[in-house]
Design brief:
The protein has 630 residues and is an alpha/beta fold. It has four domains: 51 residues, no CATH class; 316 residues, 3-Layer(aba) Sandwich (Rossmann fold), CATH 3.40.50.150; 68 residues, no CATH class; 99 residues, no CATH class. 30% of the residues lie in helices and 19% in strands. The strands form seven sheets. Strands 3-21-4-20-19-5-8-10-9-18 form a ten-stranded mixed sheet, sandwiched between helices. Helix 18 runs parallel beside helix 19. It is globular. The N and C termini lie close together (9 Å).
């Protein structure tokens, strides 16, 4: 099979991509070196690159302002390394699998972020995460930050179980902060790529790592793209048993991909602000309220006598002047924008019309629980949904907080994608469903949650939830059902997407020989003539192809029977796939739909020359179709 026909079937190698970007800017800094197989490959001359980026002679390591820790370089290496993994669809655990635009990915979030790099590059409007706070009792990902790219790639292609990925990060650990920072750094580095240019990331955190988290976010997103640190009041009552001060808030760090391209939305004006407006004189411009016409910053130009409608003369109060010049005052008076009270004898005030004020308020950095919810309310939401269960989550976030974040960042003229790669209790998904029905919007979510086993002694495990992800998925099912019930008969309810497509990270669909044929003898290769694993379905292959071709994994899928065989149509004719025995009858029928891409498998054709004939057939009937084989 030629490399041109073959799909690569693994996540992108970001090192290669970064080298190409550097080569475009500094071609003189690109050299060649030999890899593990003694083959030449491009590499960066870092000494030259350092000099290119410095205005002084670079002779060696210099002191400079930066945050460093044990494992930082390994975290960068790990983020850039490719993996030979795939996403396998799970219809049984999904809701409205074929048509929903929401995704739930089960597996390691580092691997999931790598798999999404091409499919969702620059497409996510907001990332919200509520990561482990590193309190000494949390579990963090046990990433192996010491592996080389090749070793990491080989490990990722193993078929056997890799064991648990989470470890307790206790304060007795000699790398207590370093391990947490490494875990966060690699994931945030990958997450940034997925944000739109006007996208936003919001990260919940407490005092334990707030300072260090801000430092790594400054490095990854750029300190000039830091927006604000929101203080969210998570409790409404003090804890009297607190050892020092009662902790009442969490932080939400807010960064943008490009601060010049994003502005926050205004929040709705509270009713009490509008209640002070009235229209006693039936002004056709609507309700207004009177504002002071004087100001304490003195200007002699604005110090003049105003004569009221009854002849009373008014001077500015002592040490003050009017807020406008005399010429401007006359314009306001002529436009009926000055009031002297009901009897015309009161001091002059300027009329400010409700119709002319900013239709919303600028968001602040202080979010009280009345507006953004609190922890106790979040637990009540879980109890309401899981009335027959107890103690499933200790510190879930309230949907009210998610809705406020969505209102802060959402696009007003298009549907957005929202991502949470520490999904936990799936509050973001619940918040999006709730927000959509309230605001007639159609935003979508991608949630990622590791399928780690719950502790056997935990309440969740004892009640039948073996993993956190099993609770996450059930939360989405129940919240969607409840929203439909609570809004039955509401206009537009039939268009609300409460579904989600479950995809599970697994080893690649391809046998090892597909990636490392040089490691096998000719006899081995004959035994492995079919390089697709025996337990993989056509739909498994379809999703690996969608990953490889960079298609959004939420695109609608239609299964058709063509010439007696199963054929998949993704997003109309964007991608057509057939992994059954491929005949010219199938090709002729599919070609009538002029697909942009067509994919099949080597096993679907009987003779090598059939592949050439099939490609030629497409050239005749649908010349713009790109044809590939697994």
């Amino acid at each position: 099979m030629s490399n041109q026909d073959q799909l690569k079937m693994h996540s992108p190698n970001l090192v290669d991509s970064n080298i190409e970007k550097i080569a475009a800017l500094f071609p003189n800094c690109i050299t060649e070196t030999k890899d593990e197989n003694s083959e030449l490959k491009k590499a960066v001359d870092f000494d030259l690159l350092k000099q290119e980026l410095s205005q002084v002679l670079v002779e060696g390591e210099q002191e400079r302002y930066r945050l460093d820790w044990v494992g930082k370089k390994e975290a960068i290496l790990t983020a850039n390394a490719p993996i030979a993994k795939t996403l396998r669809p799970c219809r049984d655990e999904s809701i409205n699998f074929d048509k929903t635009e929401n995704l739930f990915i089960e597996g390691d979030n580092l691997e999931a972020l790598k798999l999404l790099q091409e499919n969702y590059l620059g497409k996510v409007k907001m990332i919200y995460i509520d990561p482990p706070y590193n309190t000494g009792n949390d579990f963090i990902y046990e990433d192996n930050f010491a592996e080389s790219t090749e070793a990491f790639f080989e490990k990722s292609n193993q078929v056997d179980e890799e064991g648990n990925r989470l470890i307790a990060n206790t304060e007795s650990n000699g790398r207590f902060h370093s391990d947490w920072l490494s875990m966060m750094y690699s994931r945030l580095k990958l997450a940034r790529n997925l944000l739109k240019e006007n996208g936003v990331i919001c990260i919940s955190i407490d005092d334990n790592e707030q300072a260090t988290l801000k430092k790594i976010c400054d490095e990854i997103f750029g300190e000039n793209n830091f927006v604000n640190n929101i203080i969210w009041q998570k409790k409404y009552a003090a804890s009297n048993d607190a050892k020092y001060l009662s902790d009442m808030h969490d932080f939400i760090l807010v960064y943008t991909k490009n601060k010049e391209l994003w502005r926050p939305n205004l929040f709705p004006r509270p009713e009490e602000l509008d209640n002070k407006y009235s229209n006693p004189d039936n002004d056709p411009r609507g309700p207004w309220y009177a504002t002071n016409l004087s100001v304490k910053t003195y200007s002699s130009k604005n110090d003049y006598i105003i004569v009221g409608p009854t002849g009373i003369e008014f001077s500015p109060p002592p040490s003050r002047c009017w807020v406008v010049s005399e010429e401007k005052y006359k314009e306001l008076l002529a436009d009926n924008r000055i009031t002297f009270g009901k009897d015309g004898k009161s001091r002059p005030y300027q009329k400010k019309f409700l119709s002319e004020v900013q239709q919303g308020i600028v968001p602040t950095t202080l979010w009280f629980h009345e507006d953004a919810g609190h922890n106790i309310g979040a637990k009540s939401e879980i109890r309401d949904l899981f009335s027959e269960y107890t103690g499933l989550f200790d510190t879930p976030k309230p949907t009210k907080l998610m809705e406020r974040l969505i209102a802060l960042v959402e696009s007003k003229d298009e549907d957005d994608i929202y991502l949470d790669f520490f999904a936990g209790s799936a509050t973001l998904a619940h918040g999006i469903l709730s927000y959509n029905i309230k605001n007639n919007s159609s935003h979508h979510f991608i949630l990622i949650q590791i399928d780690e086993q719950n502790n056997e002694k935990s309440l969740a495990y004892k009640q039948g939830f073996n993993t956190i992800s099993s609770i996450s998925k059930e939360r989405i099912r129940r919240s969607g059902k409840k929203i439909l019930e609570d809004n039955a008969g509401k206009e537009g309810i039939e268009n609300l997407d409460i579904g989600f497509r479950v995809l599970k990270i697994d080893s690649t669909n391809m046998k090892d020989v597909y990636y490392t044929p040089d490691a096998y003898t000719q006899a081995d290769i004959l035994d492995l003539a079919d390089h697709i694993k025996a337990d993989r379905t056509s739909e498994d292959l379809l999703f690996q192809v969608m990953l490889d071709w960079g298609l959004e994994l939420s695109l609608p899928i239609e299964r058709k029977t063509v010439a007696g065989k199963e054929v998949f149509y993704v997003a109309g004719n964007s991608l057509v796939a057939c992994f059954d025995d491929l005949t010219f009858d199938i090709v002729d029928e599919v070609a009538k739909d002029y697909p942009l891409r067509f994919v099949s498998a080597e096993k679907a054709i009987h003779l090598d020359h059939d592949k050439t004939n099939i490609k030629e057939r497409f050239k005749q009937l649908s010349p713009d179709t790109e044809v590939k084989f697994l």
